[in-house]
Amino acid sequence: MKFPVGLRINGHVNNVTELGVFLDLPHHHHGLIHYKDFGDKWNTQKHKIKQNDELRVVVINNYKGKIALSLSRVNDSNLIDPTNSFNDQEDFGKSLTNLLDNSKHEIKLLKEDLK
User: Fold this and answer.
1) Do residues 72 and 89 share a domain?
2) Where are the alpha helices (DSSP H) in 1-115?
């Protein structure tokens, strides 16, 4: 499995150290949420995160198999998830328009059936 920048993925906490939080990722890969990702909350957060906790993270760097992860940037719209089929806002708008049109048509058919 590839881990491109922007990929949102779930991982399980393997270890919490002074360097950060190490996660086990799918397909026997590992990644690190560096302590700086937590900012000034690191001292309290490192005691709250426990081994085997599941965390939703985003890949922020992948160099020679060393996967850097972020918990704080999961919702960062600048990190585009390459696996998200709605990356293009125009396509997303078209999909919503089609859904709305189909819904209106189905509602019309249901109302006719009730008469």
Assistant:
1) no
2) 42-48, 89-114
Tens digits of pLDDT across the chain (115 residues): 789 999 999 999 999 999 999 999 999 999 999 999 999 999 999 999 999 999 999 999 999 889 999 999 999 888 888 877 666 566 667 777 888 889 998 998 898 888 7
Compute CA distances 21 → 30, 67, 73, 76, 96, whole Å: 11, 12, 15, 20, 38
Give the span between the Cα atoms of 59 and 61, in whole angstroms: 6
Query: What domain range is 71 assigned to?
Result: 1-83
The answer to whether residues 94 and 102 touch, using CB atoms and an 8 Å cutoff, is no
Quick one: which H or E segment has residue 54? Answer: strand 54-63
Contact between 56 and 8 (Cβ < 8 Å): yes
Q: Does 104 lie in the same domain as 64?
A: no
Q: What's the CA gap between 60 and 47, in Å, rounded?
A: 24
Residue 64 falls in which region: left (phi positive, over 0), alpha (psi -120 to 50) or beta: left
